[in-house]
Amino acid sequence: MAWAKNVLRVNLTKGTCTNEPLNMDWADKYLGQRGLATKYLTEEIDPKVDPLSPDNKMIMTTGPLTGTCASTAGRYSVVTKGALTGAIACSNSGGFFGNEMKNAGYDMIIFEGRAEKPVYLYIENDDVQLIDAAGFWGTTVWDTEEGIKAKHGDPMIRVASIGIAGEKGCKYACVVNDMDRAAGRSGVGTVMGSKNLKAVAIRGTKGVQVKDAPRFLGAVSDAKQALADNAVTGQGLPAFGTQVLMNVINETGALPTRNFKDVQFEGANDISAEAMVEVRSSDGKANLVNTAACFGCTIACGRVSQIERTHFSVKDRPEYHKASGGLEYESAWSLGAAAGINDLDALTFANFLCNEHGIDPITFGATLGAAMEMFEDGAITTKETGGIDLKFGNAEALCELVELTGKQEGFGVDLGLGSKLLCEKYGRPELSMSVKGQEFPAYDARGIQGMGLTYATSNRGACHLRSYTVASEVLGIPEKTDPHVSEGKAGLVKAFQDATAAFDSAGVCIFTTFAWSLEDLAPQIDAGCEGDWSVEKLLEIGERVWNLERQFNNAAGFTAADDNLPQRLMKEAAKTGPATGLASKLDEMLPEYYDLRGWTPDGVPSNETVQRLNL
């Protein structure tokens, strides 16, 4: 129950689509989505494989709660070896695609090989076809989704696709569904493009069964009430979205600015949630038009925005005079503070283009920030940029370069490398603010110490969604800890990582953890899924998933040396704000973290840990 118990295996080389039963022994140990798909991937590929080789596999995967009436149960993930990092990649997305996949009767779709020519996968319940994508190859995500719906005459089809960036090998291409929701990080869309797979289109009407419907409905009702009663999930996120954090993190002194040279941005308020709702005198409208929710979500953190029609970025481009996916905190930071830009409409336009062309705004903005620093230092000149003035704060350059990167033209090809390869190319590797090749998100490790350890140890490269210690260190959830101290942070990070892995594997949104603990999740899984599911079992699953991902990375060639931060964060202290004078204390936290994990000093899970977790 809850699982569809069905895997669709698509061999793109042979052009075949076959069903096989889900391995329920593995489901009992890894639950679903992130955990279960990672198990399949580690069993089926060599961790040393080239991410863009046909021998790499890509798995679209749901959790057991996906498609049920549980709040936020519309999630799905794309699991593969990441093109950006060469590490394990699991990129999570909301919207409606995950629900459609589950209702079509599939827990996961495994793509292997490489199609001889561009194709897309079309699924209507049991009807599965690989279809020639010649008419869609070379088009944007927006045009692809609209075109596939029109071709099949069904506006309710859910589509996940890549843009030109994914086709042409931009290292951080996304898989975008529902026009503006994305499996966004680590280059999963690049892997999809390397397989000549343009899109997956699904229509599912089978429904999802649960083990004990009355008990499941009761557990879901209690959990939804907890979300409604919580200040973050019941008030802050519905009203302001994730952008509620912009001024909060800036005041905390942990808003990375101008490629992490500073920890506070003087223009933060101009690009904040508060600015998005302000009515503009020029047109009598606000940037924020409406809110939006993914399938089954009772939080509704999504934003729908519009750009002032006279703004330089769109005044001669009526195709962008419409409402579309608005800024979230991470994109507002990466396109804004990271590059020193405080033009809200320019950021909104850049975000539109990231969605339209299918590129990760976090990595793009962080890479642009690194390029701007190298431009100001003289390592990059207008000769390389094609005449573009790449100084910090240049909103026109942002708007021009995001499009060039999405289309993989001009200097956009260089920006499409990501900051690690870009900085190496121009002789300034120390200016890449990344871990394992993936760029930092919007929290400075000097002002929030737990996030430094989170970044350094994240299995998919620098990431906030693997251990959001900001909840504790800044917001006081589930209890307040001091963001400026290292004591206790190893245990905090481990606890967040293990719990997050369990939530990701269940098929619900990580934002529920502002209000829920595993004590709220376990009753829903226990009533929905066959077997017995306790808090203790979910914690063990979370720990098992984390260690399995670590084993994959170790086998791929990553070592303890990769659990590190750029020297800027370790040696250059914060210059302003509450964290003035502090650098990251990673060296104090990492040994304790390894010990708590049951890993050797070299960062390898010990034999005892492997046996205890039945890996």
Key traits:
alpha+beta; 615 residues; Aldehyde Ferredoxin Oxidoreductase Protein, subunit A, domain 2; 39% helix; 3 domains; single chain; Aldehyde Ferredoxin Oxidoreductase,  A, domain 1; Aldehyde Ferredoxin Oxidoreductase Protein, subunit A, domain 3; 6-stranded mixed β-sheet
Tell me what you see in this structure:
The structure is a single chain. By secondary structure, the protein is α+β, with helices and mostly antiparallel strands. The chain folds into 3 domains: 198 residues, Aldehyde ferredoxin oxidoreductase, N-terminal domain (Aldehyde Ferredoxin Oxidoreductase,  A, domain 1, 4-Layer Sandwich); 198 residues, Aldehyde Ferredoxin Oxidoreductase Protein, subunit A, domain 2 (Orthogonal Bundle), CATH 1.10.569.10; 167 residues, Aldehyde Ferredoxin Oxidoreductase Protein, subunit A, domain 3 (Orthogonal Bundle), CATH 1.10.599. 39% of the residues lie in helices and 13% in strands. The protein is built from 25 helices and 17 strands. The strands form 4 sheets. It has a 6-stranded mixed sheet. The chain has a 6-stranded mixed sheet with strand order 8-7-12-9-10-11. β4 and β5 form a beta hairpin. The chain starts with 5 loop residues before the first strand and ends with a helix.
